[in-house]
Each structure stands twice: as structure tokens, then as C-alpha cells.
Design brief:
Length: 496
């Protein structure tokens, strides 16, 4: 900034203000648009920590930003190119991909020297701008986009904002008391959104625990115990298996290929189920299993969508996001068709995610095929069995059986179709299966409703951004139009 003695206040004021035609949006009459450089009194305060080897410093650097606290290091542990920072100074990260992270240095009675790496642009405390107000403004999507749109360097990981350019960027500057009111209002609203977020997350965690408990009860027969006790007729699983066997005998070729992969000791780990249930191999219920296509997919939406492992959720659903496509002329399309109540099994993924499975619903059937890391399982009596079997595969006990057979290599785990077919399924009678299936469907519908209603992180972030947008347009209901214009505040700032 030029020396105030060299130019008149009016000249300096003219240089400080953003011309009307360049102002980003309309603000209240007693606000002004000012260049950031004119509200920053920062004077470079470089320091070589190595000259103070026995002194403890508080280092602000990008990696420990997420901890919301500085890192305590001795001078001998810190490299060069550091700058001293003072309480109430605002730090703005200038390097991608963390560009526009903002931090206000908090007062700590100067217990240790506070220093920052050169990754930060430092805004010193100024009589015209409340530090936390500036922090919130620098966090808006408007300023983030502005900062990221003008960078130097090559490659996304090396680009950085130019401090000289940042000095020319606009700041919406209201009267000082209005800045404080805005900060208090933002803080109050953010506190409420964070409380809502915590409440929703706790509710979802509780729901997940309840889901796990219900699945456990369903597959132990506890969910339908009262129903069984009230039945005058005795339903047995054997009648249901006879139906299934009529289909499976027609498919002897597939059955001959099956080689049991589950450790024989697992039989002793099978829990007790009701007397009229039976543990059966999944292989006994499978009509066919097919691996997906390895053909390279693309972004041409005129083709047919290819479901991949990322499209399967951990709770047995399918999300139609980030889709890829292959040509409708692909010879494999007929073989890889998806019908209602087919099951897609994720055979290769990280150890934590491998084996997740999803049910094909009517809205997806016939409209997509699947990629090579997925296996399509088609069951005998699939309209009766698929919901129950898919839920069991995703249950704790089902996953434990699967993971006991997983092979791992270079960070990925694999469970092939033979291993999948080797797991045991606790099978009830056809009538009881129908009751359990209806309950599982109802429960999943409620779960899907909750998930669609409360996508917590996105909703909270969007709400916070909406609050910031209103705040810096003077739309939070805090502005007092009778207050002295911020022009007078800017004049005092320029003269200071």
C-alpha cells in the first residue's frame, strides 16, 4: 500500500474501493466493496527457527489444519521459510488442493512464538475488519472459486494463488458493529446445523445398530418366533426344498462344477436355528452364476449402462451414479442381462468391502449389465428367496463366512463364485420365509427413506454455504441501515 502522506485520503479511498461495475453483487447501502490489500496491515515477519533451536514454536501448517490446532515443535525440528504470526491474524492457504482453507490464529497469552509456513497468506488484525468476519468471508464458495480461478504453476497439485493478485480481490465490508452481529449470527446458525448433524448421525448409527439386530433376529428365527408358536399347522422347510430340488436337478451340469470351499470346521460354528429350519449350501439354491464383462466401458450415454462395484452400497442397494457404458452391439449383453431379484455380488474389492451384494429391483432390471468385478447370482425360486438370501450375505455372520475364504493380494481381496456358493444359509419354511422377506423389505424401505431424507454431510455443507451467502449480502436480518457507512471505517483503516 502507498504511504498515506503521498496521496490524499480521497485518492487512497478511490484506489481501495472496487468500482461499481466490478462489484460482484449488490450489498446494503452502508456497506462498501473494498480490495483486500487495503484492509491488511501485514508486514513480513520472517524467522529462521533454526536460530532458536531450544525454543518451542507453535507451527501452523496445512497438514495439521484439520486438527484445528497448531503443532508444537522445537526450533531444530522446523525448516526455514517461516513467518511469525500473531493472535487474531487470519491465515489463508494458497496452495492446491487445500486452497482456500482459512484459519484464525487464537490468542494463547504468547506462551510460545507462533509461526506459519509459507503455504499461508497472512492477514493481520485491522481496525476496520473483524478477524472472524474475514475468516467466514474467505470461506465462501464465491471467494473459493475466485481464488482457484487465478493460480500459477503446472498441475493440480502444484498450483497456488498469487498473494499480489489476492490483494486486489473484493471484500464486502459492512460497518464494524454489523460485522460482529453477522459473525454472532453465523456462529449461532452453524451451531444449530452442527447440533442437527450430530443428532442425525447418532440417529443413523442407532438405526444401523437396530438394522444389524433385526437381521440377526431374522436369521435366528427370533423375529418370527411368536408367529410359529401361534400356527395351528406345522410348516417345514423340507417341502420348500423339494420345490427347489425340482429345478436344481434340471441344472446338473452347473452342480457338477461345484467344489465346496468352506472349511469343514465351519459347520461347528453354525448357530442353532428353529427345528423346522435347515442350514443349506447356497449352491443348492443357485440356478446360475455369471461373471460380468471385462470389455472397456466409456462415457457414451447412447450405450447400455454397466454397473460396477462402486454402484453397490453396503446395505444391499444400487446407486446409479458415475455410470459407464458399452455399445448396445456388445455380444455379451444377452448373457449379462439383469432380471428383477437377481443378486449382484462384489467379488473383488478392499477386504472391508469385498462381498457386498445388491438386489436387482424392477426399476433397474433390463436396463443395465454388469462389470467383471461383479457376479450375477440367479436363484431358483428367486422371487421368494432373493431378498432373504441377499440380506443374509450382507449380514455379519454371512460376511464372516465369506471373509474366511477371501484371498488377498496387493491391497485387494477376492471371493470367487465357488466360495460364494459354499456358504451356508439358514433356510425357513416357504411360509415363514415370506413373512421374514416382507419384514425385511419394509425395513429397507424405511432405511432408504431415512438415507434419502438426511444425506447429512452434503445437506449441512449446503446449508452452511447458504448461510454464508446470505450473510455477505446483508440478508441475515442483522443490518442497521442507520449506522454510519463503512466508508468512514475504511477511511480510518487507510489512515491507520
Amino acid at each position: 500500500m502507498s504511504n498515506p502522506k503521498e496521496k490524499s485520503i480521497d485518492e487512497l479511498l478511490q484506489n481501495a474501493l472496487i468500482p461499481k461495475e466490478e462489484q460482484p453483487y449488490k450489498v446494503p447501502e452502508n456497506w462498501v466493496w473494498v480490495k483486500l490489500g487495503f484492509v491488511n496491515n501485514n508486514i513480513a515477519r520472517s524467522i529462521e527457527p533454526s536460530k532458536f533451536v531450544d525454543e518451542i514454536f507453535e507451527l501452523y501448517s496445512v497438514p495439521n489444519y484439520v486438527l484445528n490446532e497448531p503443532e508444537y515443535l522445537s526450533g531444530k525440528e522446523i525448516g526455514s521459510n517461516k513467518q511469525l504470526v500473531l493472535p487474531n491474524e487470519v491465515l489463508l492457504c494458497k496452495i492446491n488442493p487445500r486452497i482456500n482453507r482459512v484459519w484464525v490464529v487464537t490468542a494463547n497469552n504468547f506462551k510460545y512464538r507462533q509461526i506459519a509456513s509459507t503455504e499461508w497468506i497472512v492477514f493481520s488484525e485491522n481496525i476496520g475488519v473483524y478477524p472472524i468476519y474475514l475468516m467466514y468471508y474467505l470461506r465462501t464458495s464465491y471467494f473459493r472459486q475466485l481464488l482457484a480461478s487465478n493460480v500459477s504453476g503446472v498441475g493440480g497439485s502444484l498450483t497456488r494463488a498469487r498473494p499480489k493478485d489476492v490483494e486486489s480481490y473484493p471484500l464486502a465490508m459492512p460497518p464494524f458493529q454489523e460485522q460482529i452481529r453477522i459473525v454472532n449470527r453465523i456462529s449461532s446458525l452453524f451451531l444449530k446445523t452442527d447440533e442437527a448433524s450430530r443428532f442425525i448421525e447418532e440417529a443413523k448409527e442407532t438405526f444401523e445398530l437396530r438394522r444389524a439386530a433385526i437381521l440377526d433376529k431374522a436369521f435366528h428365527g427370533e423375529l418370527t418366533r411368536a408367529w410359529r408358536e401361534n400356527q395351528k399347522s406345522y410348516y417345514t422347510v423340507e417341502e420348500f426344498l423339494e420345490k427347489i430340488n425340482k429345478f436344481s436337478t434340471k441344472n446338473e451340469k452347473r452342480n457338477k462344477k461345484f467344489i465346496d470351499q468352506l472349511d469343514s470346521s465351519y459347520k461347528s460354528k453354525l448357530y442353532k436355528i428353529p427345528d423346522n429350519w435347515k442350514w443349506v449350501k447356497l449352491d443348492d439354491l443357485i440356478e446360475s452364476s455369471v461373471y460380468g464383462t471385462s470389455q472397456k466401458a466409456n462415457d457414451d450415454i447412447t450405450g447400455i449402462p454397466v454397473l460396477r462395484m462402486g454402484n453397490i452400497t453396503s446395505d444391499g442397494g444400487i446407486v446409479l451414479e458415475s455410470l459407464k457404458y458399452i455399445s448396445n452391439e456388445c455380444a455379451e449383453i444377452d448373457k449379462l442381462d439383469l432380471q428383477t431379484n437377481d443378486i449382484l455380488f462384489n467379488r473383488t474389492n478392499s477386504y472391508e468391502l469385498v462381498g457386498k451384494s445388491a438386489l436387482i429391483t424392477e426399476d433397474i432390471a433390463g436396463k443395465a449389465i454388469f462389470a467383471s468385478y461383479l457376479i450375477r447370482i440367479r436363484l431358483h425360486e428367486k422371487n421368494k428367496l432373493a431378498t432373504y438370501v441377499c440380506a443374509f450375505i450382507n449380514s455379519y455372520f454371512g460376511r464372516q463366512m465369506l471373509l474366511s475364504m477371501a484371498t488377498q493380494q496387493v491391497g485387494q481381496a477376492n471371493i470367487n463364485s465357488q466360495k460364494l456358493a459354499s456358504i451356508f444359509i439358514p433356510l425357513p419354511s416357504e411360509k415363514e420365509l415370506s413373512i421374514i422377506t416382507n419384514y425385511l423389505k419394509s425395513f429397507k424401505e424405511r432405511n432408504d427413506y431415512i438415507d434419502s431424507s438426511v444425506t447429512v454431510e452434503n445437506n449441512v455443507n449446503e446449508l452452511k454455504e447458504a448461510i454464508l451467502q446470505k450473510a455477505f449480502r446483508g440478508e441475515l436480518g442483522t443490518n442497521n441501515p442507520t449506522e454510519e457507512s463503512a466508508v468512514e471505517l475504511l477511511k480510518a483503516t487507510i489512515q491507520s
